Amino acid sequence: MHETTNEFPMVRHVPYMGVIWTVAEASKLGFYNGHPDWCNVGQGQPEVGEIPGAPARIMDVQMQPFDAAYGPLGGSLEVRDAIADWINRTYRRGMSQYSAENISFAAGGRLALTRLFGIFNDGARIAYKNPDYTAYEDYLYPLRRSCELLELRAEETDGFTIPDARFEEFMRQVRPDAFIFSNPCNPTGQAIQGESMQRYIAAARDANCLLSADEFYANFAFNEDSTPAQDPISALPYVEDVDRDPVIVFDGLTKGFRYPGWRAGWAVGPKYVIEMINRAASAVDGGPATMVQRATIQALAKGQAEEELAATRAEFAVKRKMMIEGLAALGIKTASHPPLGTFYVWANIGELPGKLADADYFFHECLKKKVITVPGHFFDVRPYRVRPTDEPYRHWVRFSYGPNRQTIQTALERIAQVIAEHR
Fold first, then answer.
1. Ranges of H-type helices in 187-267
2. CATH architecture of the domain formed by 66-301
3. Which among 124, 228, 283, 420 would be 20 to 30 A from 317, CA to CA?
4. How far apart, in whole angstroms, are the C-alpha atoms of residue 151 and residue 146?
5. Contact at 8 Å (CB) between 333 and 346?
6. DSSP state of 222
7. Cα(11)–Cα(297) distance, rounded to whole angstroms?
8. DSSP assignments along 112-141, one per residue
9. Helices (H), 175-303
10. By the 8 A CB rule, do 338 and 224 touch?
């Protein structure tokens, strides 16, 4: 993962997506995924081993002879039925139901999102939030000349969330054709839920705006006291008509189910939008692997899924408390609104001594202690790739409590050493 000399002028330079850049920098010092001496509290990967109260990890899958053939572009009927059943029993009890026709299965969340960005019309007005998931910059960049790209920036004074009244005003005044956001938000951990989500959807419906909610962190839902929330965070309970409401949701097994290496993701939305996404898949990727779909059906089985998600939320609630309190003890402050979702802490290092208050310098100093973090400016989505002179999030860092408890504790101890050496 090192930069090489470009001897091919016809090939454009492709920058690493922010989080991947941090891993590439660490790899220069000997890091690799699973290295016992490193603490990766940067990358967005949940621990994948056994945790208390969770069912045994799925280790094998039974294939059928015909699985060796090409499958449907949007996934097999069996996997789409399994996803729809899980969604309906989780979010839609007593409400209209999603069916297999409302589901598109893909080899991971990024691919599912790539398909969406491939179906927008020329001239579409696409709105996005800042700060947000680093990959959105990569999705929007190819559309910069064919679409109008509209920013809605979350303010620090609002705890880096977009209050529903402000969102409603944005919909009325700007009237975008689509609005893309992660919820719960990567990196800030802020979440739109309950009545606020209901108002978001109503505003999008009134503006005929496709509300695209990236919900890969839906299961990581917490109360302010770090206890696990009763329910996941999602737009799906607030959809009135599954085929007419302009709402599309992305989720998968990557985060909440703790199977990131399976690359199992899906989109849920109106049948017409899903059909267009599946048609885009014919050129983008050709459809998902059957063996992963077979494993996904196992993971979503009634009882299995509920036990896994409940155990994961409980364990991560403990780690959330560890990370927030551990950082606070080091003088690293979270935003004014505590993170209620994801497994990230978006924190301000501006009061650390000297140059350590700069997120890039902090990152490189932590690397010397074999600790990976992510500088905040990577989450400042700039589709035209023109960086400001003064980075707005230069004092902000995303810390992940995805790893196990011991890794988090060791990382905090090493960060304390970095700070002590700069006093």
1. 195-207
2. 3-Layer(aba) Sandwich (3.40)
3. 420
4. 16
5. no
6. B
7. 40
8. HHHHHHTSPPTT-EEEEEES--THHHHHHG
9. 195-207, 271-284, 290-299
10. yes
For the chain, how big is the Rg over CA atoms in Å? 21
**Could you give phi then psi for residue 149, rounded to 5 degrees?**
-105, 125
DSSP run (H or E) holding 249: strand 247-252
Torsion sign over Cα 329, 334, 339, 342? negative
Summarised one tens digit per residue, pLDDT across range 335-387 is 888 899 999 999 999 999 999 999 999 999 999 999 999 999 999 999 999 99
What is the edge-to-edge ordering of all strands in the sheet holding 178-182? 103-106, 265-268, 247-252, 210-214, 178-182, 125-130, 148-153
Chain centroid, CA 323 distance in Å: 19
First to last CA, the chain: 34
Domain ranges (residues) in the chain: 18-51+307-421, 66-301
Amino acid in the structure at residue 379: F
Hey, what are 242's tokens? 């599954």
d(CA 102, CA 86): 13
Check residue 146 and give left, alpha or beta (phi > 0: left; psi -120 to 50: alpha). alpha
**Tokens for 96?**
């209209």
For residues 119 and 97, give the distance between their C-alpha atoms in angstroms, rounded to a whole number. Answer: 25
Question: Alpha helices of 208-244 — where are they, by DSSP H?
Answer: none
- The CATH number that domain 18-51+307-421 falls under is 3.90.1150.10
Question: Is the pTM above the cut of 0.90?
Answer: yes
Q: pLDDT by residue (tens digit) across 111-160?
A: 999 999 999 999 999 999 999 999 999 999 999 999 999 999 999 999 99
